[in-house]
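Give me a protein, keeping tokens residue-aligned:
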Amino acid sequence: MKPFGYKNGKLFCEDVPVAELARRTGTPFYLYSQSAFDQQFRAFDEAFAPQPHLTCYAVKANSNLAILSLFRTLGAGFDVVSVGELRRALAAGADPKKIIFSGVGKTEDEIDFGLSRGILQFNVESAAEIKMLEARAQALGKTANFALRVNPGVDSGTHPYIATGSRHHKFGISIEDSIEIYRRARRSSHLRITGTACHIGSQITSIEPFLTALRRLRGIFLDLRAQGVDVQHLDLGGGLGIVYHDEEPPCPGDYARAVLALVRDLDCTLVLEPGRVIVGNAGVLITRVVLTKQMGRKNFIVVDAGMSDLMRPSLYGSYHGIQAVALTRRGKWKADVVGPICESGDFFAHDREMPIVKAKELLAVMSAGAYGFALSSNYNTRSRPAEVLVCGRRAKVIRTRDRFQDLIRGESDKPL
């Protein structure tokens, strides 16, 4: 099923016309297909059925409570990188025993909260962090389950800002250092080694970087077993890419078959942390044309959404397809699609062949289900957009648009 498609020239999300949702909700807003979330999660999770595994959805990709709750009902665990994300997962009904706590800068308070809730595993990223984890576990009278996030020194071939597996990145621990840290941890009565982990980046469109990392992770896993450590979890992280434009990423089934061929003899539980591949193509950003303008030979389509709503084009130079919500016969022109933010970096497309549109017409910025609302802000004192979830003919606002009072909450209107 395609979550977004045209019927009689009008764009629909499942069985609901997008223009009707825009009339009821206002613009801009994020629009998601529940059926697409469901189908993509099942396609990924079921591909690993031959191996004991836990699919921990990466909360950072899209953290709306309704979406987390949906994945929980499908059997998902959760990968979190802050106490806020941990609280979100728990608020959505997550089982703490299915939560992985990743992240390079966990604080003592965050560690304490995770320990108090009895989460499945901390993915530790430095020697300093393992000392902190041990100290906090001792102070609370707990035993902390952990895996070391190893930096395998793999070039994932993705954008530098979302690559995490090379030696010059801030993430993880070198393979050499991990050996000594594991050795010391074995002597602690407040630490329990549960596995080994890695994560090499995001929007990766080739299987080979994953397999290179997995081979190195497998070696560590076998070494621990040889030393008598009863490790169970082999955490490969996430990062499988999607189609935004002309990419050709592997499908979850091909990815799973390649991974399973390297782990089926290990008697381990495979931990996976997919995010974008589950939600990316299940969401769009709906925006309204404010006006069009020409400056010499340059054409601009100015819309009411901006970089504060969808940061990826400004942050990474990322491509998002842009479609008219109502098809017309006016032809096409080359134009920049830009927002109202007072930054030259506020754009969705440069010199893109676009349908000729008029003020008040609607556009859909495609493939915006991952790292869309999650990266949004209130820059220029703008309200973050609403989020709407569709299932069949039903639609529900799962996050209301910010009101002005939301924007100034917690501020004082009195100077010293």
Remarks:
- The chain has two domains: 4-32+280-400, 103-272.
